[in-house]
Write a structure and sequence with these properties.
heterotetramer; A: about 325 residues; alpha/beta; Rossmann fold; 14 strands; B: about 325 residues; two-stranded antiparallel ribbon; about 40% helix; globular; binds thiamine diphosphate; binds magnesium ion
Chain lengths: ~325, ~325, ~325, ~325
């Protein structure tokens, strides 16, 4: 977890994981109400099974940084209560699939208590979780459920892909007065990138154009950003100029930025790691087509996981995940 | 499971007994008025009466301060009334008015009133408990001696949230008291047809936690156990499970057909109604006169009536409220 | 629960609830592997809090019809195990909001076990549940989460609105070799309608045109069908001919029927009771616009619940629910 | 909590002891080979070794038939090997081949083999238990005397599914045995930092169910308790909770850094390795000769090697498999 310093004009090279760690250290130092807890997160337990929270309990003490029993409902409940009492808990759900045992706490309570209490309660929690296929962990360890939470009123959904965004968005999520689901992606979390040494909060709800283009807009987030960037690079070789928009926050999503790009290029492909069927890409695609009716050169395509569980065998897992070639094929299909 | 708490069993003094009775009567008068309004068609929401269970929250609330917190359930209006939540915002909420404590957005199943420590009211069985732990953790962080009560029913003791919560509270030594109102039924299901243990308090053993089966209709037994549990929590010694035996006279929900219980058991329970019994005891022991108690009652009835009048005079919330309180920042129209 | 017989040419008048009950009686009589269980479902407990399962335990015995503790995870687990052992459990989750405590069982297990076992396991369960706003039961008793399950591979989602469909689709759901979520809607369940005295199974996945029209297609299901039918009647008075398509099965949905209707009318409005934001309507709208690109006269509109919890106060609840007037306004907005 | 099961403690006879040892050795040889293949980079999936825990499933499986069922967890390959699941489809699955028992779609965390009663392998902590109850209910419906074993870990005893499952099994008197392999750790968390009770078996009290803390490394203690629990289940007397104390020598997952435990405790556990200890006991008591056991070992090693060779010679599944087994009917391309 030691930050590999390679400073260039105030930039530091670090992985997303290091960026998350840096954000946690910074937030806990700046605000004594920030708490970090979850399974194995304290140093006694190794600072997280991936080591992401290492050093926090040593620095901020056992009362603010706590390992928990394996009991996600009680983890989320404790986060909610502490938040209502004035704290800012950052609760870790080790992998996204495990949130299935705590949906009541998140959906019926965290997301709703402010509204149901007429504004008397506030639940400023961050739920950090990790997911992503590609490691052969099969059907119960790699799911993308962000669509469920985007479809739940009262909770924001953040899903970065670049180290700077991991840091800046996590800082904002912690400061946010409302619940935020913060999704770390297992294929991007360990990839190093440039982060400003003094990287501060990055506003939630703002997309980032990670690649300028003229012919088609690729709308995506989380682990699929690198897939789209790779596809765009290949498409460029064939003379097709693809713009890549990284939503960074899925809910609320940056409609203005997406529509501006899609209007400019006249074509859009929405790419998610989540299931395509009734997935979060449908909201984006439906909105683009509705808002830009008559102004698009082609139908909006959607790519996402096929209608099945995440398979184990490598060949199947590769076929399950949207690949750059799939993005290229979809783009070419609407270029005529 | 009812374990003696030793030779120095805490006993409510005269003032305490009178205060407990006041809280019981406040609950009962409020409940009676609520049912009357429903019968008259003036309130349409489902109502879960706790008639018969008054001793439990009345005694516990007597031992709490406004800084102590409660997390309760759909059948929890009694817990709020016992906690001296003001009745005007309570009634306005039940009537769905903008002056309700939740602006009419939560309703009777989600009443909240942080000033008196009414933090969460949940409609999901078991869910008061995990959240109560969060308040308990906050107490440790605050370094204050506040306690949190998690109210729930016997049926709720069979759901996962109960287990996870008692375990965490014990491992973390949280100042939380788990108060189970065991009224013998979960909706239409009789205790023993859903619950595998003879006394819910026994489950405390599995969490290395003290657990007691208490006569939830006896203010003295309730006082002794609640006093000890609260003292233990304030002293940093951790949580306690109190199983308080009682009965709900009105069935599960207003209008409930009661076919799942025998007439005899219900009649026996009603005959043992703790409210008139305790009233008689106060009089017999010379702690209060008939006149004093009648005056108390009149005062409470006036308070309830005032709240009802207030509530029905309030406006309904504006539809713009659908965009407010979703997030801290209002959602654009 | 006694069927109000009013036979006309083999037709019987009954409510959706009576139809559900009739289907359960029929399925249990026809196949001894069919089991019914859930909270309070046996006669000792009154045959369900609504009385829907009344009489089943008397007729089929306490071993096949069982009331359970309040423990939805154990309810779903028992259903899954019994199904894998060769039975056909129909498990009741009293209200849809309560499935939040059993999501792991449904999503990580019921929906995936066939796939993860390479076809060795099968989980032919039906999860019957009830939901719908309109009764002032507020934020935790009226949610529509069907979008989550439509976005889960391996489970079908059925949501009827008419008594005949309640019966026929439940019979099919019970016969189906895979998990089915069967959603009963609290505003339609007690409304009587005509059901063939010998109503048999109605295939899953087939929509029904409940109202023919020329100018616009209203795509909907469950409690919103009656809303759309009411809107269509009003629109007719103003000379606008609306076709109402009741999906009946949300996943898999009847793409052919919807596209045929939308192509014919050239306009579509998708109406759900579920949240509009990232809701199931997005899949339908995105697909219509993609598949009929260039052939629609207007953008596809979507109506659904606003982005908030179900409110308690009657005025707010009415505003929360999509009303016929909302449908009419959306249709008129695209009629020019 | 280890309660004597009376004077007639069931004891494994010579054949039983040898069979238990055979199952232990089959597990250990298979585990050893798995780790060797991973070290050589031939298997890429996460692997949760159960080295050190062999006695538990070996003894239980000896007492089961193919019609008895198990529901197990990510650390459950030992349970399958003990249950005499054939190794070829097991290895082919771990290697992600189409001839794997799940056609390569489930992998090591979701191995299934109904012919030998391996019904469910779950990667979600606690989830073996609710499903096991379903098989238990089916046994009652079938009128047969089959039992179902739900395997899980000590950490899993803190999650809601444990509680709901034990309660339901007890209320319904299901023929299910809840077998907790208490290896003292849940991932990196030491038992007492996550679990509020000194012995998990005590939790059985809360479900009106017999519960025993067993020496999970002692085939005799395991045999006595498993025999009684299985007999009880077959007799229709309901479920039992067995907490079997043991240790996982290899940490949580292959490659685990072990920093959360002391070198001493690990060294002590490894020194008490039940496998060589039981081997020595068999020889000392004259039940087997060195030569016999060497021959047994050679046979098992050949079986494992055959499975490995088979697996690596198999094809990867075709991508069309993504459309198969989602539903009974194949999804159209
Ligand atoms: C998770 C969940 N399941 C089911 C219900 C429906 N339900 C509401 S109250 C209730 C009975 C609860 O019984 P108990 O805990 O004994 O409390 P009581 O109502 O007797 O006060 C049930 C099953 C619910 N609200 N939440
Ligand atoms: C619901 C859930 N939460 C967290 C995890 C991550 N996890 C996998 S194994 C494990 C530890 C389980 O410990 P224990 O039950 O003692 O079993 P052991 O691994 O020691 O055999 C955890 C926390 C999970 N798989 N499921
Ligand atoms: Mg009760
Ligand atoms: Mg363990």
């Amino acid at each position: 977890m030691s930050t590999q310093t390679m400073e260039t004009a105030g930039m530091v090279k670090m992985t997303g994981q290091q960026a998350v760690s840096a954000a946690l250290f910074q937030a806990m130092a700046e605000d004594s109400r920030v708490l970090v807890f979850g399974e194995d997160v304290a140093d006694r337990e190794g600072g997280g099974v991936m080591g992401t929270t290492k050093g926090l309990s040593a620095k901020f003490g056992d009362l603010r940084v706590r390992s928990t029993p394996i009991a996600e409902q009680s983890i989320m409940g404790a986060a909610i209560g502490a938040a209502m009492a004035g704290y800012k808990p950052v609760a870790e759900i080790m992998l996204m699939n495990f949130i299935t045992v705590a949906m009541d706490m998140v959906v019926n309570h965290a997301a709703k208590l402010r509204f149901m209490s007429g504004g008397q309660s506030q639940v400023p929690i961050v739920i950090r979780t990790l997911t992503g296929a590609g490691w052969q962990t099969a059907g119960q360890h790699s799911d993308h459920f962000e669509g469920w939470f985007a479809h739940t009123a009262g909770i924001k959904v953040v899903a970065p892909s670049a180290p700077a965004d991991y840091k800046g968005l996590l800082l904002s999520a912690i400061q946010d007065p409302d619940p935020v689901l913060f999704i770390e992606n297992s294929r991007t979390l360990f990839v190093p990138g440039e982060v400003a040494a003094d990287q501060g909060p990055i506003p939630l709800g703002k997309a980032k154009v990670v690649q300028d283009g003229r012919d088609v807009t690729l709308v995506t987030y989380s682990g699929m950003v690198q897939t789209c960037v790779a596809a765009a690079a290949e498409l460029a070789k064939e003379g097709i100029s693809a713009e890549v928009v990284d939503l960074r926050t899925l809910s609320p999503w940056d409609k203005d930025a997406v529509l501006a790009s899609a209007e400019k290029t006249g074509r859009a492909v929405v790419v998610t790691e989540a299931l395509r069927h009734f997935g979060p890409g449908a909201e984006i695609a439906a909105t683009i087509q509705e808002e830009l009716f008559g102004r698009l050169k082609a139908p909006v395509r959607r790519l996402g996981a096929p209608y099945c569980a995440v398979p184990f065998a490598k060949a199947l897992e590769d076929a399950y995940l949207v690949q750059p070639a799939d993005v290229m094929a979809a783009v070419k299909g609407i270029m005529r | 499971m009812s374990q003696s708490t030793g030779t120095n069993v805490p006993r409510p003094d005269a003032a305490a007994q009178l205060d407990i009775y006041r809280r019981m009567l406040r609950i009962e008068r409020n409940d009676d008025a609520t049912r009357a309004q429903i019968r008259r068609g003036r309130i349409t929401a489902p109502y879960y009466s706790a008639r018969g269970q008054e001793v439990i929250p009345a005694t516990i609330s007597h031992l709490l301060t406004d800084d102590d917190k409660i997390c309760t359930i759909y059948r929890g209006i009694q817990d709020m009334v016992a906690k001296d939540m003001p009745l005007r915002p309570l009634w306005a909420e039940i009537c769905g008015r903008v002056d309700g404590t939740c602006k009419g957005k939560g309703g009777p199943m989600h009443l909240t009133h942080p000033e008196t420590g009414v933090m969460v009211t949940t409609g999901i069985v078991g869910s008061s408990m995990p959240i109560a732990n969060g308040f308990g953790w906050a107490s440790l962080l605050d370094g204050k001696k506040h306690v949190t009560i998690a109210y729930f029913g016997d049926g709720a003791s069979n759901i996962g949230a109960f287990h996870e919560s008692l375990n965490l509270a014990s491992v973390w030594k949280l100042p939380v008291i788990f108060v189970c109102a065991n009224n013998g039924f979960a909706e239409h299901t009789r205790y023993e047809n859903g619950t595998s243990v003879d006394f819910i308090a026994r489950r405390a053993i599995g969490y290395g936690m003290p657990g007691f089966t208490v006569d939830g209709n006896d203010p003295f037994d309730m006082y002794a156990h609640a006093h000890a549990a609260i003292a233990r929590a304030r002293a940093g010694e951790g949580p306690t499970l109190l199983e308080c035996k009682t009965f709900r006279f009105m069935g599960h929900v207003f209008g409930d057909a009661d076919g799942y219980m025998t007439k005899e058991e219900k009649a026996a329970a009603v005959a043992a109604d703790p409210l008139p019994a305790f009233r008689q005891k106060l009089i017999d022991s010379g702690l209060a006169s008939e006149a004093q108690l009648a005056q108390l009652q009149a005062g409470l009835e006036a308070e309830v009536q005032d709240a009802i009048d207030f509530a029905f005079a309030c406006e309904a919330p504006d539809v713009a409220e659908l965009r407010r309180d979703v997030f801290a920042e209002e959602i654009a129209a």
